[in-house]
Write a structure and sequence with these properties.
Elements: H1 19-29, H2 36-45, H3 59-83, E1 87-89, E2 96-98, H4 112-118, H5 121-125, H6 128-139, H7 146-154, H8 166-180, H9 188-205
Antiparallel strand pairs: 1-2
């Protein structure tokens, strides 16, 4: 049975529910999944009070909206794993509920993105100046190769003479995370950009 498109159901969300539960309702309506942008637009359309009801042209609003949504997504994924009821695939281009499979919970044990988004200090401490450099290529999800090139430049792999693959990129990612992690005196904004670049490159090199 095909799910009814969420755009045809402009019913307001119950704001007594937390953001994770609101997202779960939307995802249950979208059997084929939906993008981060579509989720944000549906939350706004249905008057969720858990994300800023402001235009995404403002850089800091865009960052905070993205962070709040991904914080809720990772909380929801953990909860669904614990309940053994579903697996939540999290990708900016497609967030989707999938059947639960034993063993998937181990994926959360070493997930830098999960650790980043569940640490609300990043939301609290990131200023407009911090996100200024990140938005052009990462948050706008540009078409073509622009985001890929920006991510490779951030990883200093744009001029690599070796053939790139996901293993090489992950190795470089781990090096950068270790170097720039705030717990080691690094920059929160730099770590954020590294995480976002890894999301982008994983899509191109998987």
């Amino acid at each position: 049975m095909t799910a009814t498109p969420s755009s045809a159901l402009p019913v307001e969300l119950d704001n007594s529910l937390d953001l994770a539960d609101q997202v779960l309702l939307l995802l249950r309506e979208a059997s084929d999944g939906c993008s981060e942008y579509q989720l944000i637009q549906q939350l706004k359309k249905r008057h969720s009070t858990h994300i800023p009801n402001l235009g995404l042209a403002d850089k800091l609003v865009l960052f905070r909206t993205h962070f709040l949504l991904f914080n809720a997504l990772y909380q929801l994924r953990d909860r669904l794993w614990q309940e053994q009821s579903a697996h939540l695939a999290i990708n900016p281009l497609c967030v989707q509920l999938l059947p639960y499979s034993a063993g998937q919970a181990s994926l959360s044990e070493a997930d830098p993105l999960r650790e980043y988004y569940l640490d609300t200090r990043h939301l609290r401490d990131t200023s407009e100046g911090d996100v200024e450099k990140l938005l052009t290529s990462f948050w706008k999800r540009m078409q073509g190769g622009d985001e890929k090139r920006a991510a490779l430049e951030l990883f200093e792999l744009d001029n690599s003479t070796e053939a790139l693959n996901l293993a090489t990129i992950k190795q470089r990612y781990r090096q950068l995370v270790s170097q720039h992690h705030p717990d080691r005196g690094g920059s929160t904004s730099r770590l954020q950009s590294i995480n976002l670049a890894m999301e982008i490159l994983a899509r191109y090199y998987r």
